[in-house]
Write a structure and sequence with these properties.
By secondary structure, the chain is mainly α. 57% of the residues lie in helices and 0% in strands. Helix 2 runs parallel beside helix 3.
Length: 182
């Protein structure tokens, strides 16, 4: 029981804030140094690997990278359109037709989708009020149909009695004829 701390032993001193900050800075610098070494070694390894390739393998690598770039360029706009529509639906934004949008602006130079550009566009569209018609639609204002809709012609009058003609005049079925429009 000699190893057990006694109640009379003072506790170990807690490190000061300055000591803790110094330790954090030390480990941060070591981490940065190791990361730099890893990047340098990876680049050196890739250079060595490229130098060991035969001409046929180099040609294959070139074709692979060109094909990847071409495929991404081809489908990049479709991917950007899909992500744009998805983010717009999630934000409740109505987008204009895709033919009015420059989809290349939402793709990076390698054909990959630029999510930050899409998010910025959706945010700008979310602030705008939805465009409403300038006037109410479908209220029956103005003429509905042609000028002769519901109007009688001279031929119709020739087959009518005077009483029927007076009833048609009262119903407004002779207005266009009386104005000379028919």
């Amino acid at each position: 029981m000699a190893d057990a701390p006694s109640e009379n032993t003072p506790p170990a001193e807690a490190p000061s804030v300055e000591d803790l900050q110094a330790q954090v800075e030390k480990w941060r610098n070591l981490s940065r140094t190791n990361e730099k070494r890893w990047n340098d070694t990876s680049a050196e390894l890739e250079t060595l690997r490229q130098s060991q390739l035969s001409d046929a393998e180099r040609a294959i690598e070139t074709v692979r990278s060109e094909t990847r770039a071409a495929v991404l360029a081809e489908v990049g706009t479709r991917l950007a359109d899909a992500e744009l529509r998805a983010q717009a639906a999630a934000a409740g934004v109505t987008l204009p037709s895709a033919e009015y949008l420059n989809m290349a602006a939402f793709s990076g130079p390698d054909g990959a989708v630029n999510s930050d550009a899409i998010a910025a566009y959706i945010a700008s569209e979310a602030g705008r009020p939805a465009k409403q018609p300038e006037y109410a639609q479908g209220l029956g204002l103005g003429r509905q149909g042609g000028s002769g809709a519901g109007q009688l012609t001279r031929d119709d009058l020739s087959r009518m009695t005077p009483r029927e003609i007076n009833a048609a005049r009262a119903a407004g079925q002779l207005d266009a004829l009386m104005r000379g429009q028919i």
